[in-house]
Amino acid sequence: MANTYKAVEVSEPGKLRVVERPIPQPGAGQVRIRVEACGICHTDAATVMGVYPGLTLPRVAGHEVVGRVDALGSGVTRLKIGQRVGVWLIAGEDGVCEPCRRGDAVNCQNPVLSGVSADGGYAEVMIAEARGIASVPDELSSAEAAPLLCAGVTTYNALRNAGVRGGDLVAVQSIGGLGHLGVQFARHMGFRTVAIGRGREKDKLAKDLGAHVYIDAAAEDAAAVLQRMGGARAILATGTSGAAMGALVSGLGVRGKFIVVGVPQDQIQLNAFPLAFGGRSVYGSLTGTPIDSEDTLGFSVLENIRPMIETLPLEKAAAAYARMMQGAARFRMVLVTKNGGA
Ligand SMILES: NC(=O)c1ccc[n+]([C@@H]2O[C@H](COP(=O)([O-])OP(=O)(O)OC[C@H]3O[C@@H](n4cnc5c(N)ncnc54)[C@H](OP(=O)(O)O)[C@@H]3O)[C@@H](O)[C@H]2O)c1
Ligand SMILES: [Zn+2]
Ligand SMILES: [Zn+2]
Prior knowledge:
Elements: E1 4-12, E2 15-22, E3 30-39, H1 44-48, E4 59-60, E5 65-72, E6 84-87, H2 98-101, E7 125-129, E8 134-135, H3 142-160, E9 169-173, H4 177-188, E10 192-197, H5 201-208, E11 213-216, H6 222-228, E12 232-237, H7 242-248, E13 252-260, H8 272-276, E14 281-284, H9 290-302, E15 309-313, H10 317-325, E16 332-336
Parallel strand pairs: 9-10, 9-12, 10-11, 12-13, 13-14, 15-16
Antiparallel strand pairs: 1-2, 1-4, 3-5, 3-7, 3-16, 5-6, 6-8
Helix pairs in contact: 3-4, 3-9
Bound molecules: NADP nicotinamide-adenine-dinucleotide phosphate (NAP) and zinc ion (2 copies).
């Protein structure tokens, strides 16, 4: 077996470079994974541009990772060699901070972050914390499972924890990597599902994904359309524009919830009136825990939900990343390796 592997590292801000590295050994509580597929999430931009807080370069980005365990560190008993597993952003809580001690591990104050504090999945090999790993069901190919580990769990968890009921009007704002999965989950959870994108081109795609209604926010006032429909019980905001988010809050019905999962660079401007008059709320939601990811994979198998993906070989990471940043991906770029991820 070769004693080196290929990785794509961010060597300096904005630069993705293919490098050859010696194969590492997993430490205590860790496993080594032969990566088969890794999705490209918009959050990777914070690593690629070198701006994620606490990040040091060089770093391998990527936190939608599926592969097979090929070496176990000491003390790892739960996982087996050859098992197909998934890793995502929050790849291991510290277990000792206040949120962890209160059972809120997703909000750990000092987690291992794939692609930020530890090397991620734009690589043929990755070291991961055994405690932060999900098993991947056989029904999903590695390339299909990968986006479910960030785009999927983030939207699935936000929707299932929103306190909405079957038949409620639920809107998903922005139809990208997260949004196109959010639309599918909303439909399969039984909500009256509205997709909000920009441009007519996404109308058919959104309906194919299960949206009952598509609103073209470039042509119409999306908040006004939602109000005419009775007001949304929940809006899942997945996009990268704070201005677009702020403008949509008034599309909520009384006591409606605006759930922020997209992390725009610009501020979200809020009008106090729809918040105070009608008890509407705005709050955030961050990805999920290992068991939330396993639930996401399980629900996707149960309801036959799959991400729409475009695959490229690992070595083309820079081109795949550029396509995501241009908003051209339909809807998730997934890197596949020679380990057999397609
Ligand atoms: N909370 C979490 O745990 C979590 C997890 C993963 C990602 N994220 C964040 O979620 C966001 C989306 O990630 P992604 O991977 O889905 O990104 P993506 O695939 O690049 O999709 C982003 C979408 O944002 C919309 N958009 C872009 N520019 C816009 C503008 N100027 N005005 C209105 N909409 C605009 C576009 O949708 P339309 O063309 O349909 O408008 C685009 O498809 C990122 O900020 C990412 O960091 C958060
Ligand atoms: Zn992500
Ligand atoms: Zn913690």
